[in-house]
Amino acid sequence: MKDLAQRIFLKIILPLIRSMSFRSLSFKLYVLLAILLIVSFSGIMYFNITSYTKHLNESVINHAIQASDLIKSSTRYSMLKNDREHLYNIIAAIGEEEGVEGVRIYNKPGGIAFSDNLTEVGTTVDIDAEQCFVCHKNVPPLERLSTQNRIRVFTSPQGHRVLGLINPIENEPSCYNTTECHDHSPKDKLLGLLDVKLSLKAVDEENAKIKKQMILFSSVMIVLTALLFAGFIIRLVHIPIRKLSRGTREVANLNLDHVIDFDSKDEMGGLARSFNQMTKELKAANESNQEWASTLEKKVEEKSKELQKIQANIVLMEKISSLGKLSAVVAHEINNPLSGILTYASLCLKIIQNPASFVQGESLVHYLTVIKDETKRCGEIVKNLLIFAKKDFGKWMDESLHKIIQNSIALVKHNMEIKELELIQELTEDKDTLYCDASGIQHIFVALFMNAIEAMSKGGKLIVKTKSLDHHHVRIVISDTGCGIPGETLPNIFEPFFSTKESTGLGLAVVYRIIQQHGGKIEVESELKKGTTFTITLPRKPVNVQVGLNRDSIGLQSQDGGGDG
Predict the structure, then answer these.
(1) How many Cβ atoms from other residues are within 10 Å of residue 320's Cβ?
(2) pTM of the model as a whole
(3) Distance in angstroms (rounded) separating the CA atoms of residues 509 and 523
(4) Is 3.40.710.10 the CATH number for 95-202?
């Protein structure tokens, strides 16, 4: 049986357990059931063995008491007749029976009057002996003993247990009223003791045999029950969970064609059916999404082409708007010197046509000088316009930052005079040389100056500051006292074609692009009704500059909104 149980465990249970992961729900459930099974069978087995042992001991004791009473009854007549020979024969015959370790009759003084071992007859037993101590441990000695105190169990020299039973021989009326019996006083309560010793070797061997059989039977039952539990868990729990887990992994890997091949009427089967239905619906939704995405790509492509056309139109409008604004600036700038030239040319013509006034040669020279200066002024304006209007940005060379600023101011000076604006310049005295595209930098300043001028009313201030940060960078600050930019529009001012005005002007997106070309950055702070400040940081000599528009590098700060678009 032991070998059979071992083979079952090694060939069936152990492979089943190995098929389950130690972290799986089925393994944990199996371990829990196994523990409950072992505890339950162990408790039942312990209870059965304990109950059986107790019942066996009680039966042995009862039989021992019956045997002692039987011996006492069989020897009573011989003791009444005082037939010692017959009594010896009875005790000797009983002592030879299997399982009887010894039979003794003690007289009242403690001497062995009769025994199956003749060598003990006539000897006296010490009152501290195990068969005497129960009564004589008290003073005076006990005259009556309970059944429990009459019994003793000890180990024989041969190593097996022995049950000893003391049966008191009481003084009865038949003992002291019978002439055949030796004379006893009626006052004596006990005449002696019958001590019977029975071997428990056979009982212990039988008890051990029964225990082994119970343990083996319980072990076999545990193994068989464990097999049933394992099969139950694997069939109804482990396999369904493993298939469901594999199904979730397949779906996670976008394998929507996977189907869980598990069908039962319990919750696991319902879950598998729901999972298959979900996978089916996901597949249909995915196919629908793919079809929609394909259609969307076409629509996006069509819309992109439309947007490109719209963007091209907007760019054209931006160019036209910028050209119109620039033309207005140039017209204002050139109009004044041309008016002066026309006036003084008319005066010179009158002097030449009237000979009488020819003596006023000094006035004629003065008029011609003014005409020359105003003509030169027009030439400077046109020259600056040509520099500003260049499209071939990218001609880089060392330029004076302050010179670029002055050229830019010259282009917008007329607009400032019309609005009676105050120009404040705080230019650093340090080296102001930049390796840059002068036309592009001038484009930046003109755009910011024009935005500032448009944002201010009469009497406003335009402040231009420069500062050398270190040997490699320079900072330009352009501030105005205009209306400011609302906070909700401030983050968008550098986006292409975005403006807070009806016209986009020169466009801050172009400004930002040129600054990016030069490897710099621009930051803006604005407060409604107080003004706007643009801070530009440029390297003296850009390294690894890339052209592009990346608004993440723009620093925007606002108080209550702020600035010009």
Answers:
(1) 10
(2) 0.38
(3) 13
(4) no
